[in-house]
Amino acid sequence: MRKAKIIRTRQVVSPLLTLLAAVALSGVTTVHASDNTDKTPAVNESVQSSATSQQGQAAATDRKAGTLSDDDLEKLIDRSDATPTQDILKMKDGVPSDQQEAWLTVAKRVADQDLSTSHREQVILYNEIKIVVPAPKAAAPSAESDASNQASNASAQNPSSAASSAAASSSSSSAAASSSSQSKPEAAPAKNEAASAAATPAPVTDNRYVSVTDKNAVLYADLNGTKKQEGAAVYQRTFKSQAKYQKDGVTYLALYDANQTLQGYMNQASIKVAAGAGGVWTNASGYASLTKPGQDVYGNLDTKQVIKKSDDVLDNTYFISGAYHHLDGQVYYSLYDSHNNWLGYMAGSGFETVNSAEGAWAAASGYAKVVDKNYAIYNSFKFDATGSTDHYYQQYFKKVGQYHHVNGAVYYSVFDLFGHWLGYVNSAAVQNVTIANPEGTWQADDRYVTVTDNRATLYSDFNWTKKQAATDVMLQTFKSTGKYHNLNGLTYLSLYDKDGNWRGYINQQSITVGVSDGGAWLPANAYTTFTAANVNAYADFNQQKVATSGAGLVNQTVNISGQYHAFGGVVYYSIYDVRGKWLGYVDASQVKTTSSAAGLWLPHDGYLTTTQSGQMIYTNLDSFAGGRTTTANYQRTFRIMGEYKHYNGATYYSLYDGNGNWMGYLNSALGSESKEAQGVWMNYNANVLITASNAALYSSFFNMTRDTSSLYGGVYQVSGKYSHVNGTTYYSLYDGNRWLGYLASWATTPYMDYYDWTKPSQSKPYPDVNMYPNLSIEVDIAKQRVYIKNGSTNLYTMYASTGIDNSTPRGHFAIQTERGYSFYNANEGMGARYWTSFLDHGVYLFHSVPTDASGNYIVSQAKMLGKQPGSHGCVRLTIPDAQWINAHIKVGTPVYIY
Questions:
Q1: How confident is the model over 624-641, as pLDDT tens digits?
Q2: Which of 405, 565, 646, 874 is an active site residue?
Q3: Distance from CA of residue 318 to its chain's centroid?
Q4: What's the 3-state SS for 673-733?
Q5: Is there a catalytic annotation at residue 847?
Q6: Which of 32, 404, 847, 872 is an active site residue?
Q7: What is the pLDDT of residues 695-713, one digit of tens each?
Q8: Contact by Cβ (8 Å): 312, 295
Q9: Which helix or strand (DSSP H or E) is residue 571 part of?
């Protein structure tokens, strides 16, 4: 491996380019600070030429110079190899080959800054060269002052070389000083007037163009430190330096403007020497659109040589690749095309600056016909294609603007002929055409039309300016007074409202033509119920002729099969009855609609007693789904809470039971209505036995007159009944011809020659044995009755048939564990069901009326129930009574037979 060259220098050094030139000339591998104290090697001409090259040459390279800024180059310094005593600065990847020398300049500036704060040795590794900047040990003379003095002496001895020596000194000190001036303001000349007067610095003739490159530069009014301007006010300005002065170790330049007027004095470290009056190249980017005619394009900024006019390249867009702040006060930009061909310099006021490559928008109008299928249509200048001219081949676009892209192409911003923006298309894909009357010729029209497309738009002109969205006028009817057959192939109608106001142009495809001022027929499928006799149905849309009077429509549900949104602003429904007969047009604002054929819910309050069995109680009046029938609810009274006049002609009541539970809908013809909760009177003739001693007798519902204690056990006549909404049936009870009152049916049992052994003995429910802790069973042989008691209170009475010849034992017993579903005694020729033992573990039983060998009940034996003994010692009961005891009476329940 080749060994890197090492250069050692002092803390304040001559410019890096000079230093590198010295290395190149001397061939020294290691240069110490003491080696360069008294003399500075001459700067190689090739190095010096970088600061004095002609502007024509700068124009050819200024795009490359502007590739990376100083800030970008500083980011490409690698400091990761630092040691406790050294800061090591290396070049990262990514520095262009033509900017490595600029990187070295930046690295030296950074090293100088770090040295002033860390006081550690700075090492710069540049290709194969190692530059060492040692840590300071003691104050040293200013290298800048040395260089200046050397230049002054050289000028005195050899006038012809003074300018070049001064230029070298100025360039050297400028590079070193500018690096530090970026981070802190410069020191002003000392304001000691006595000393200044005693030692006024002698001017050295200067004749250079300089540009201010320090953002914190100060322009002084004199050499005594009086500030005139600073910072942004002078930054990047170009001046003519006529003389320079040495004061307090600092070189000051006397700066003049284009009118040869002295502007002030500035530290030489804040400037950079320019090749001419154009100033130094500065970084600038962007795009220039040449939209202004008659502007000059220069080939040289010193001579102001005009090489062409902007008219030759008008509307073209160019890259901006650097700027020059000229002595005349204007900023000139260096412009290139997309093929890297240099156009020249133009003043910033001579073009329009834009930030994107398409350039500035320019006006374009008229129409273009697509003649090439092979071009993309873009929605932005990122060139993301959203369509192709193939889709629009031989069709027309409307142009609304154009862009002259830096790539040399012209792009039109185009709309289709329906007013939809399509994007940007290359002008090479289309041919400009002239169309005199694209909207078409006006033609008379005299029709009523209804807007039926909610996606349409009403336009105020044929530039497709939106006047109103169709959603705002949807289903409204207008009068079309004219029409246009547009270039886009569509017909547009000119619409007016009923007040004569013009509403705009609309695509004919968005309307439906009406047959009259009623507008177009529009489909509808709904129902309405007429609830008032003053709403008529008309035969026309002017309400002049009545088709069906309100009196003929009241309480009727009709079908709405269509609607008209009339020109006058009224909406009409076309209505039909269930037979399909047309009834007329009705004003929609006069009725309410529903989607159900049941019609509208109407208030109704009353009571309905069902009078027919086997009929459905519906839960839905459209599907006629049902959940109940009147069979289980025959002669039951319900509360009416509303009704529906169905389209089929029937009236349906909405029914609720006495607990507020909804039961469903029932045809009103299947019951009888009452205003009272007991329902309607129903014919019923029977003899009943009073089986409850404390039931109430009512003279009206519910006005109690007495109880049944004096009637208990007697037989009375029933001449009618009511099925109350509370679920109880009430008998109208007579004793011969004397009316006793209304009695709940549960307090009685039908009186017959025999008792119904297939039913419970009483109509009321059996008691819940879990509610009575003192439950017992008593058997009255004399009365042929069984009593279910709780203590002394009788809960339920059952018909019984005990043993013949007093074969049923009397006494106190208890329910035993033995019980079963059925048995058969062959010796006796009979058996029974639901048996429960109370004595001798299966010998003496409670059971049903007897069965034969086939399991059929023996009717002749069953008729003895409640009338006379018939068993061989057991206690016979009705089938349900025996089943209930078998299922519910617990083992150990006391049994008392007497």
A1: 998 899 999 999 999 999
A2: 874
A3: 43
A4: EECCCCCCCEEEEEEEEECCCCCEEEEECCEEEEECCCCCCCEEEEEEEEECCCCCEEEEE
A5: yes
A6: 847
A7: 999 999 999 989 999 999 8
A8: no
A9: strand 571-576
